[in-house]
UniProtKB/TrEMBL annotation, chains A, B:
InterPro entries: Bact_HTH_transcr_reg, Chorismate_lyase_/UTRA_dom_sf, Tscrpt_reg_HTH_GntR, UTRA, WH-like_DNA-bd_sf, WH_DNA-bd_sf
Gene3D superfamilies per record: Chorismate lyase-like, Winged helix-like DNA-binding domain superfamily/Winged helix DNA-binding domain
UniProt protein name: GntR family transcriptional regulator
Source organism: Actinocatenispora rupis
Keywords from the named record: DNA-binding, Transcription, Transcription regulation
């Protein structure tokens, strides 16, 4: 069953290097000779593997320096319900592209239990670089006070808890993969076709009432999701 | 702050329809007139939104039928540690592309605590369609008995528990987004550039010893990940 064409050999190296690079294990990659020894592979196989990772935008070849790691990813836990600024630090800012009362489409109304909603669209920046495009529908009574709040600087979760005086409880999260169309790519500052997380998140107040339905498009080159799973 | 060019209006519809489609809410989409009424939008905006979703490969226009949903996604919980066949039913088969003892590269050895490993590469099919390309490094003593086991038909988790007689405990999971290079695309049966989940998963026996390090490339058009998050 074993097949070992050239592309397979390169893949075996790239698959192991990719998460190392993304986890921040390297600033500059070890040279080809060292990698070949580590992987018990030929230097040609290492070169092919690095070419795959350069094409994915994870590495860049720099003359006189070697192969360097491009970009940085931020870790987001998939265990606790938390906003971006809470999780990643205080360097988040939001460009508010839309904030208005709106009769929700049926799919949204069914999940929030009302078609009286506040519709927010925010382009979120982390360290002055776009991270995600967030579409949020809030139940009208919960969302209306937020129209006067600091939507540019604060997480919606924190604002909901402050204005309602009640804590949030749980959220159902669905994570999908998509790629950026031309318009999304322009907004998020990535090439057309770049990989994105498409996250749908329905958050409830502690009493179980759903109040916040979000559709997030998050740059795949800037975020990783983490979870601890249990066998039982 | 509000900007509403044509592309923004289309996006507002596409962002809400996308997860509905992926969750299996429709076989055939409601017609443009009905969608326009539901979203309080023009038919032009609906048409633009559907064009975005056709380009993403979620919808197809069929003459005389309308706009139909293409493909189907399988739900995978991000809360319990489970193999593919256990989670998705009995229709999984694996093409074993590699299964051999190997001295692990340093990055793998550091996580498994040994460089004596069994290296598996499997192309996994669900309902006779490729789903993921799984690279697995097993600690040698745990993995060696699996070389004689039914790797084509069974999940590695179940095989580990059977051959060691010990249950698995927890796993650390990291989920990233990547896109398919030409070689991966061919193996997985997707267009070059298609969105993929890149999953790294380190599983431990119940006593805490790490024994199974996996690098999975999973078709983004066939899987969604689900989690319930808690605010506390």
């Amino acid at each position: 069953m074993e097949t070992t064409p050239r592309a397979d050999r390169a893949r075996r190296i790239a698959d192991v290097l990719r998460p190392q690079i993304l986890a921040g294990a390297y600033e500059t990659l070890p040279d080809e000779r060292a990698l070949a020894a580590d992987f018990g592979a030929s230097r040609n196989a290492v070169r092919d593997a690095l070419a795959v990772l350069v094409a994915e935008g994870l590495l860049e070849r720099r003359r006189g320096v070697g192969t360097v790691v491009v970009g940085e990813r931020h870790r987001h836990p998939l265990s606790r319900l938390a906003g971006l600024a809470e999780t990643l630090g205080g360097t988040v800012r939001n460009e508010v592209r839309l904030a208005r009362p709106e009769r929700a489409p049926a799919a949204v109304a069914a999940r929030l239990g009302t078609d009286d909603t506040i519709h927010l669209e925010r382009l979120r920046y982390l360290d002055d670089e776009p991270l995600s495009l967030d579409r949020t529908y809030l139940a009208g009574d919960v969302g209306r006070p937020l129209l006067a709040a600091d939507l540019a600087g604060r997480d919606v979760f924190a604002l909901i808890e402050e204005t309602t005086g009640r804590p949030l409880g749980t959220a159902d999260v669905t994570v999908r993969v998509t790629t950026a169309d031309a318009h999304t790519a322009t907004l998020l500052g990535v090439p057309e076709g770049a990989g994105l997380f498409a996250v749908e998140r329905l958050s409830r107040l502690a009493d179980g009432r759903p109040v916040d339905l979000e559709y997030l498009l998050v740059r795949g080159d800037r975020l990783t999701l983490h979870a601890v799973l249990d066998r039982r």
